[in-house]
Amino acid sequence: MTEDRVIRELRLLAVKLRRDVVEMIGVGAAGHLGGSSSLAEAMAVLYFHRMNISKDNYRDPNRDRLVLSKGHAALIQYAALCEKGFFPREELKRVKTLDGLLQGHPDLSIPGIEAVTGSLGQGLSVALGMALALRLDKSPARVFVIMGDGEQSEGQIWEASQGAANFQVDNLTAFIDWNKVQATGPTRDTFNIPALDEKWRAFGWEVIRAEGHDPGSIIEAVEKAELVKGRPSVIILDTVKGKGFSFAEGNAAYHNGILDEGTYKQALAELDAAKAAL
Ligand SMILES: Cc1ncc(C[n+]2csc(CCOP(=O)(O)OP(=O)(O)O)c2C)c(N)n1
């Protein structure tokens, strides 16, 4: 079991990452609040607890890799990379501007980003290629990839999924951010994929479930996945889209919605309250 002190630190970090996301979106502009905030705890665990990755080793062949296949949630990854010192905080203010470093979707020009994503469905294939190459090199590094639940409708995912099982890749951990809402509404109303866990199991993967807003549960799942030999693992994170913001939770309007003065202030106030409660 992870120490309470560590869990609290990770929860505090998740609040901080959410704050950065809100500030990056700002007032009067659209931003992917929903799918970014559902990943705050997972990002905190991966970047600040589990992954061997830092601004000093990010070109080391033996670093761990994270591919954010649901690249539209880049803001939460930028917040984590910034907190780890990959680039100055000033860059957060210039996000999504032509002169800035941080573009609307992950790009290889950004320190710490491992793959260009944004066109959904491709990240697992990229991550599989990395995992196979690392295995050839006998590297201890691990590859993590985060997909969305809406993204599961992309056929390429299932091709890569079978490839990973066929090649018995066990240095790859996939996540599904099961926040149950995609861009325009509930995922089940848009493209329903029932029994996601059974499908992944049938495709030859170890399937693990975790509470996506509980760092302890995520850590346990990640550690369990690393003990699995001879096949890849997928962690289905039970999450809430827009987590942490009462007006955005489960609300597709904040998939890529605009914050006005009122919702912006409310978001920051709710983050202050969340921090005070920890
Ligand atoms: C190939 C492709 N088709 C459509 C889109 C447009 N799009 C961006 S986000 C999104 C919804 C994704 O839903 P989900 O994977 O559940 O993401 P989350 O709710 O976690 O943000 C869509 C359809 C895209 N980026 N790529």
How do the strands and helices of this protein lay out in sequence?
Elements: H1 4-25, H2 33-37, H3 40-50, E1 65-68, H4 74-83, H5 90-93, H6 123-136, E2 143-148, H7 155-166, E3 172-178, H8 187-190, H9 196-202, E4 206-211, H10 215-227, E5 233-238, H11 261-276
Parallel strand pairs: 1-2, 2-3, 3-5, 4-5
Thiamine diphosphate (TPP) is lined by residues 34-35, 38, 70, 72-73, 118-121, 148-151, 177, 179, 181-183, 187, 241.
Give structural notes.
- With 278 residues, the protein is an alpha/beta fold.
- It has a single domain, classed as Thiamin diphosphate (ThDP)-binding fold, Pyr/PP domains (Rossmann fold, 3-Layer(aba) Sandwich), CATH 3.40.50.970.
- It is built from eleven helices and five strands, in the order αααβαααβαβααβαβα.
- Helix 3 (40-50) crosses helix 10 (215-227) and helix 6 (123-136) packs parallel to helix 7 (155-166).
- The model has no long low-confidence stretch (mean pLDDT 98).
- The site of thiamine diphosphate has 21 residues, from helix 2.
User: Could you describe the largest sheet, including whether it forms a barrel?
Assistant: 5 strands, parallel
How far apart the termini lie comes to 19 Å
Bound molecules: thiamine diphosphate
What's the average pLDDT? 98
So, the CATH homologous superfamily?
Thiamin diphosphate (ThDP)-binding fold, Pyr/PP domains
Defining traits:
278 residues; alpha/beta; Rossmann fold; five-stranded parallel beta sheet; 11 helices; 10% strand; globular; binds thiamine diphosphate
Short description:
The protein has helices at 4-25, 33-37, 40-50, 74-83, 90-93, 123-136, 155-166, 187-190, 196-202, 215-227, 261-276; strands spanning 65-68, 143-148, 172-178, 206-211, 233-238.
